Here is the input.
Amino acid sequence: MSRIFSGIQPSGDLHIGNYLGAVKNWAQLQHRHESIICIVNLHAITVPYEPRELSSRTWEMAVSLLAAGLDPEHCTVFVQSMVPQHTELSWIFNTITPLGELERQTQFKEKAQRQESVMAGLLNYPVLQAADILLYRADLVPVGEDQVQHLELSREVARKWNARFSPQQDYFPEPKPLLTVTRRIMGLDGQTKMSKSMGNTIGLLEEPAAIWEKLRPAMTDPKRVRRTDPGTPEVCNIYQLHKAFSAPATVEHVAKQCSTAGWGCIDCKKVLLESMTGEMGPIRDRALELRARPGRVEEILQGGAEHCRLLAQETMRQVKEKMGLP
Ligand code: TYM
Here is the structure.
């Protein structure tokens, strides 16, 4: 059974972009692969943050992941800072990662633009990501499309390290991305990727009334100006969300109503709200149950970290041996 590894930052509520691009896939893959999912709090501190907020967000992220279907019987869930080998291996990888590769990373360039002063940690972010994955020698990394470039760097790090320190036999596998059909969910503005930093998200645990407040003004087909204009479903972001949340027969019906101007955009959004509530309601209920049992969540995270520390210690033992480090 191949091993999958993936990570998510505890930066605000888990949104439907995270859910459709990655988390929902993790919940399915856990039954077919040995699965390790990490809440990457050490990545989250590469931009300015509030310590108290970070710790409550880390906790909330654990609740959301478990509520969304990660089952501790099938999947290890843990917090990155509880396994110190991530930073240890990251330092080692820093010594073989070309500076130019890091400066070329799109996410670094975007995030750096938004900071007054840029810290070295932001530049080295993808090196820590490579360490996360390779520490467990994972073969597959289920992510959304925005992480593909980081994964190319992880593969390059694996290749370089193998060539230098383990030339007889590749010690680290080259991890491959696993994408879904919903690999890039657009924000409610329909212009940019859904992301917390753009303020264009819908939280996975939001109440129907709050979701409706966001859906109602959300961008649809930009060419459909009047109610009587027929729309083009494929260019409409709301239709893309229907494809993710609604049953196939509903999706077909929506496309027909839109392209014949049978429905206005508000009618279409009302049906989408129903589909979203159908999927997200039970997740919200599970989150409420979990919040009432903090001891259980704590136990899951402690157990996950313990399991990962054992795996990580063994990797570091072999890595150090091959590198001449006592
Ligand atoms: P993060 O926390 O930004 O996002 C978590 C996952 O959600 C996916 N995602 C999306 N998918 C589709 N459409 C969207 N609009 C959207 N927004 C987010 C992301 O692709 C990701 O899979 N650097 C990573 C965290 C990380 C990691 C790792 C991932 C650290 N170490 C090791 C994999 C393996 C990040 O910031 O993801």
